[in-house]
Design brief:
Layout lengths: L2 H8 L4 H8 L8 E5 L3 H13 L3 E5 L2 H11 L5 E5 L7 H11 L5 E5 L7 H6 L4 E4 L4 H12 L1
Parallel strand pairs: 1-2, 1-3, 3-4, 4-5
Length: about 150
C-alpha cells in the first residue's frame, strides 16, 4: 500500500463543490466512526472525511469501536468498519452494533473482499461496501448514498 497513492486521491472536491454537486448540504458535518486495525488506513480515511467536512472518531479494533460507539451513540451518524481485523472482525462488529442499535448505519470497507461481495455484505447487516483503496469521490458518493 503506497501512501502517496492515497495522498494523490485526497485532493478532490471541496466542501462547497460537494454541496453543489450532491445538493445535500445536510450531509456535511456528520460524525463518522472509523474502525480499522491499520492506523495508516484510519489516518488517510480521516483526512478524506475531514476534507469532506465531517467529524471523525477512530478505533483500531472492533472491541474499541463498540466501546466508542456506546459512549457516543447519540452523535455518531455512520460507522465505517474494516472486515478483516484480529479479535472482533467486521461481521462480529456489525452483529454487536445491530443488538445495540438496529438502525445504526454501517459501511463495510475491505481490501480483502471483492466488489462482488457487496450484495453479500448487505445481507450480512451492512448498509454498503467500499473496496479499498478508494478515492475521495467514491467515499463521498457512498456516504451520500447511505445517509440519504
Amino acid at each position: 500500500m503506497q501512501l502517496s497513492k492515497f495522498k494523490n486521491n485526497i485532493a478532490g472536491p471541496t466542501i462547497g463543490k460537494f454541496e453543489t454537486d450532491s445538493g445535500c448540504p445536510s450531509l456535511l458535518g456528520k460524525t463518522i466512526l472509523l474502525i480499522d486495525d491499520e492506523p495508516m488506513v484510519t489516518d488517510i480515511c480521516e483526512m478524506m472525511l475531514k476534507a469532506l467536512g465531517h467529524k471523525v472518531l477512530k478505533a483500531h479494533s472492533g472491541s474499541e469501536g463498540i466501546t466508542i460507539y456506546e459512549a457516543n451513540r447519540d452523535r455518531i451518524d455512520l460507522i465505517i468498519s474494516d472486515f478483516n481485523m484480529p479479535g472482533m472482525n467486521g461481521q462480529e462488529v456489525v452483529n454487536k452494533l445491530r443488538i445495540l442499535d438496529h438502525g445504526v448505519q454501517v459501511l463495510l470497507q475491505s481490501g480483502g473482499l471483492s466488489v462482488t461481495h457487496e450484495e453479500e455484505a448487505m445481507v450480512r447487516g451492512f448498509n454498503g461496501f467500499l473496496q479499498k483503496p478508494y478515492g475521495l469521490d467514491t467515499l463521498s458518493d457512498k456516504i451520500a448514498e447511505i445517509l440519504n
